[in-house]
């Protein structure tokens, strides 16, 4: 994590609606350090878009409260890659490479709004020189009488009474 990165709730989130609810985004504004009583090592301070500012675990006590949403704000760019949906040259932030289609890449914005086949797996590249990363991110597909409904775990679980079954699609192998 670096100051300026955009984040969302992670796998160990237990802080209610401090972030203003599932799917809301915040910015890392401070990195924890050893010896600090207010922001210890393996924590970060986040300024949520809703105005709340507090610290979260990024490995502290073995827990991860946050997931990286976007890193374009810290100047990450893939200069020779074109998003195959919005056609922007030089993808800013993370690059999402389809593992099914030949030479098919998405920027974070197109990836997050489902601009490609959701049954395909993707690799995520955080920088132009990084290796593909696995992540905890899942897409959920809830099959409702023949209609696919996409959303987060929380959103789908809140659709009480409508669930038939849930298919977990892991985006990374």
UniProtKB/TrEMBL annotation:
GO terms for cellular component: cytoplasm. GO terms for biological process: protein ubiquitination. Residues 78-130 form the ZZ-type domain. The keyword Zinc-finger applies. The keyword Zinc-finger applies. Pfam families: MIB_HERC2 (PF06701), ZZ (PF00569). Pathway: Protein modification; protein ubiquitination. PROSITE patterns: MIB_HERC2, ZF_ZZ_1, ZF_ZZ_2. GO terms for molecular function: ubiquitin-protein transferase activity; zinc ion binding. Keywords: Cytoplasm, Metal-binding, Repeat, Ubl conjugation pathway, Zinc, Zinc-finger. InterPro entries: MIB1/2_ZZ, Mib_Herc2, Mib_Herc2_sf, Znf_ZZ, Znf_ZZ_sf. SUPFAM superfamilies: Mib/herc2 domain-like, RING/U-box. It is found in: Cytoplasm. It comes from the Eukaryota. Residues 1-72 form the MIB/HERC2 domain. This is ZZ-type domain-containing protein. It comes from Scyliorhinus torazame.
